[in-house]
C-alpha cells in the first residue's frame, strides 16, 4: 500500500516518476482501512528535499500511511517558499489535541550551537514532551536524535575535532532487534555532523539500548526499552547525491572540508558516488513502521 499525501505536494511527481505507488486523497477516502497517522517534524532548511527523501522510505511498505508535515512556528524557514509551507505544513497548535501512530523528527544544521541557543528549542521541547502521551513511537534523526537524547535522557552531545562526513560501515549489536530484521552483518549509512554522543553515556542509562555502532562514526542507533523512541545518528534516507551537494556547497563557502569518506570512487569528486546504503536505509524505515508502529499501535488511535 502507498503513502497518502496531498495531490499537489511536489514530492508526488518525483515519487511517481520513480514508480512509487502514491495514493491520492480521493482514492484513499474510498478505502475501508484505517491508515497509520504519521507526523513529520521537518527541521531542515531544504524542506522539499527532506520531505521527499523521507516519504520515499515510508512509501515502500504494505501499509497505508496518512502523512502530515509539521513546521515550527517560532522559526520559519527562509529556504522554502512560503506558499509551499502554507499549503502543506501545519503547526503544533493545530495538532496538539490529536494523537499519532508515529512521528519523525528530522535533523537540523544547528549542531555547533548549544541546544538552548536554537531559536525554536522551547517549542521543540514542548513537542517532544507532548510526544510522550500523543505519539505511539517516535523516530529521531541526526541532530533530532541528539536533541531527543538530551531532552528525554539528559545525554550531552560532544563536539568532534572535525566534521564526520561520509558513508561508514556499521555493525548491528542486537541482531534479534526487529529494527534490523533483514540487515547484513555490516551495513552502510551516510553521516554528516560535527557532534556525537558517547556509547558510555548511552550504556549508563538503564532505559536505553545501544543497538548499532560504527568503529569510525561511533553511536548509530539507540532505542528506549519500551520501543517508544528511536534515535538514529546518521541519514539512511539520503539521496545518492546529497553528500556531493553538501561537499560542493562547503567548498564554495571556503570551508575546510574533506572529501566525503567512502563515497566517491577513488575519492574523486568528479565521479558519480557509489550508493552503499539504499537497501539498509529502506529496511530501517520499513521495519520501524511495521514492527514498532503498525504491529503495536492501538486500532483506536484515541487509546494512544
UniProtKB/TrEMBL annotation:
UniProt site positions, description: Important for acyl-CoA specificity: 111
Q: In which pathway does it act?
A: Amino-acid biosynthesis; L-methionine biosynthesis via de novo pathway; O-acetyl-L-homoserine from L-homoserine: step 1/1
Q: What is its EC number?
A: 2.3.1.31
UniProt keywords, alphabetically: Acyltransferase, Amino-acid biosynthesis, Cytoplasm, Methionine biosynthesis, Transferase
Does the keyword Transferase feature in the UniProt annotation? Answer: yes
Cite the CDD domains for this sequence.
GATase1_HTS
> Location of site Important for substrate specificity?
192
Record's keyword annotation contains Acyltransferase: yes
Q: InterPro entries under this entry?
A: Class_I_gatase-like (IPR029062), HST_MetA (IPR005697), MetA_family (IPR033752)
Give its localization.
Cytoplasm
Question: What is the active site of this protein?
Answer: 142 (acyl-thioester intermediate), 235 (proton acceptor), 237
- Just give the chief location class: cytoplasm
Report the function annotation for this chain.
Transfers an acetyl group from acetyl-CoA to L-homoserine, forming acetyl-L-homoserine.
Which family does the record claim for this protein? Belongs to the MetA family.
The protein here is known as Homoserine O-acetyltransferase
Say which species the protein is native to.
Pseudoflavonifractor gallinarum
- Gene (name only): metA
Amino acid at each position: 500500500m502507498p503513502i497518502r499525501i496531498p495531490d499537489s505536494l511536489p514530492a508526488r511527481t518525483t515519487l511517481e516518476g520513480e514508480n512509487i505507488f502514491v495514493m491520492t486523497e480521493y482514492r484513499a477516502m474510498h478505502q475501508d482501512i484505517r491508515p497509520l497517522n504519521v507526523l513529520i517534524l521537518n527541521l531542515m532548511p531544504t524542506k522539499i528535499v527532506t520531505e521527499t527523501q523521507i516519504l520515499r522510505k515510508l512509501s515502500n511498505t504494505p501499509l497505508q500511511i496518512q502523512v502530515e508535515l509539521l513546521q515550527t512556528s517560532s522559526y520559519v524557514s527562509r529556504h522554502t517558499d512560503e506558499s509551499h509551507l502554507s499549503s502543506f505544513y501545519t503547526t503544533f497548535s493545530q495538532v496538539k489535541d490529536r494523537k499519532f501512530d508515529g512521528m519523525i523528527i528530522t535533523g537540523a544544521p544547528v549542531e555547533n550551537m548549544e541546544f538552548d541557543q536554537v531559536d525554536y528549542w522551547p517549542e521543540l521541547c514542548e513537542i517532544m514532551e507532548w510526544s510522550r502521551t500523543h505519539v505511539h513511537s517516535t523516530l529521531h534523526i541526526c541532530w533530532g536524535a541528539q536533541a531527543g537524547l538530551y531532552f528525554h535522557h539528559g545525554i550531552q552531545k560532544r563536539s568532534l575535532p572535525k566534521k564526520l562526513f561520509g558513508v561508514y560501515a556499521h555493525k548491528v549489536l542486537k541482531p534479534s532487534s526487529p529494527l534490523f530484521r533483514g540487515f547484513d552483518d555490516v551495513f552502510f549509512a551516510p553521516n554528516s555532523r560535527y557532534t556525537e554522543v558517547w556509547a558510555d553515556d548511552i550504556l549508563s542509562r538503564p532505559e536505553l539500548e545501544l543497538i548499532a555502532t560504527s568503529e569510525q562514526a561511533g553511536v548509530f542507533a539507540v532505542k528506549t526499552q519500551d520501543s517508544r523512541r528511536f534515535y538514529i545518528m546518521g541519514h539512511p534516507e539520503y539521496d545518492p547525491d546529497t553528500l556531493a551537494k553538501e561537499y560542493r556547497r562547503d567548498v564554495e563557502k571556503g570551508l575546510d572540508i574533506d572529501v566525503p569518506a567512502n563515497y566517491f570512487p577513488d575519492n574523486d569528486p568528479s565521479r558519480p558516488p557509489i550508493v552503499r546504503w539504499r537497501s539498509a536505509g529502506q529496511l530501517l524505515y520499513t521495519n520501524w513502521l511495521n514492527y514498532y508502529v503498525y504491529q503495536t499501535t492501538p486500532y483506536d488511535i484515541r487509546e494512544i
